[in-house]
Amino acid sequence: MYSRKGLGTPKEGPYRSDADVHDGYTEQQQEQYSKYLKKLKSDFDESWCKKSKTNMNFNEYERIKTLGTGAFGRVVLLKHVKSSKLYAMKVLEKEKIVKMRQVEHTLYEKRILESIRFPFTVCMEFSFKDNSYVYFIMPFVPGGEMFTHLRRMGKFEEPLAKFYASQVILALEYLHFCNLVYRDLKPENILIDKTGYLKITDFGFCKILQGRTWTLCGTPEYLAPELILSKGYGFSVDWWSFGVLLFEMCAGYPPFYANDPMKTYEKIVGGKYRCPSSFNSDLRDLIRNILQVDITHRFGVMKGGVMDYKNHKWFRGLEWECILNCRTQPPFVPKYRGPGDTTNFDRYDDEPIKTASRCQYDADFTDF
Length: 368
Ligand SMILES: Nc1ncnc2c1ncn2[C@@H]1O[C@H](COP(=O)(O)OP(=O)(O)O)[C@@H](O)[C@H]1O
Ligand SMILES: [Mg+2]
Hints:
Elements: H1 27-49, E1 61-69, E2 73-80, E3 86-93, H2 94-99, H3 103-115, E4 126-129, E5 133-139, H4 146-153, H5 158-177, E6 180-181, E7 190-192, E8 198-200, E9 207-208, H6 225-228, H7 236-251, H8 261-270, H9 281-290, H10 307-310, H11 320-324
Antiparallel strand pairs: 1-2, 2-3, 3-5, 4-5, 6-9, 7-8
Helix pairs in contact: 1-3, 5-7
The chain binds adenosine-5'-diphosphate and magnesium ion.
The site of magnesium ion (MG) has 4 residues, from loops.
């Protein structure tokens, strides 16, 4: 006899709630969910305090190809020869990290990647360092960047934008609950899994935040006004970036844009943008409530917290717990032709890994 599973043969989710499914998100549901978040936070805190294991035998792995590049290194597809298991390995050059004064950020990136566990964020399998590099080895997310799909489709239809937006909200809620500010939300850092669900990657600017911070980091179009104005900022900057992301997913371009970053900053600080005529009134209302220059009026930062999102009318009908448990059928599933398929990623020239005879910058990286 065949079994009747829901569309997309859902995985068993991590979170159980005994609340009835209905429209919106009630205080009771949120209260119950907070208990689950507290458990996740205590898991995070426990891993944070543990010393990680860093042993890996490179001979057991095969480097397949580059998946992405960045300022300090690259991410390559890696295969464990015996098991055929695939990984994404972020390779960061110690020399570049030191020269660009990113040692502290990189140490944070490593410890955070090791300690987080949430359905919509990547995590670390293991890490490693040698004479020239540090290596972060994560599960390979094969669907490519949201950026690639967004540019190809032009913009996302509303059900797809809602599907993605809800996962980003849940991920930010989790990170902030663990006192982590992410600071680099943008479609390039959001990967699509083969199921169609999201994984946020790149914790290079993420850090534990108590109180306020002042560091200028992120990507021009996605920077919050309070960050540009060097006022000292907190978790509010991630909600602003979420507003920019939501706009870009639905419009196909960001709300504040100019050729010169200084002009972009002027526009951001001025807080003026124009919604395309295709945006309906609920979407406009939601974006207006997020892209508030005055943080005391910004969704996510106000008294209602994340509930302001979960109960906003643009999300009417969305079942948050089904999203969390990956029980909602994704509106889009990327093509994946089997293990090792990298056609969802751009092509890059591969570069040989350097080998230095002596360990470089040993003192800077003792904590790795
Ligand atoms: N786990 C992963 N699976 C597949 N691709 C990944 C993974 N992590 C990163 N990438 C790819 O590598 C790119 C660069 O990685 P990222 O961590 O964002 O580095 P950077 O800090 O240089 O921006 C990403 O935009 C993505 O295309
Ligand atoms: Mg990145």
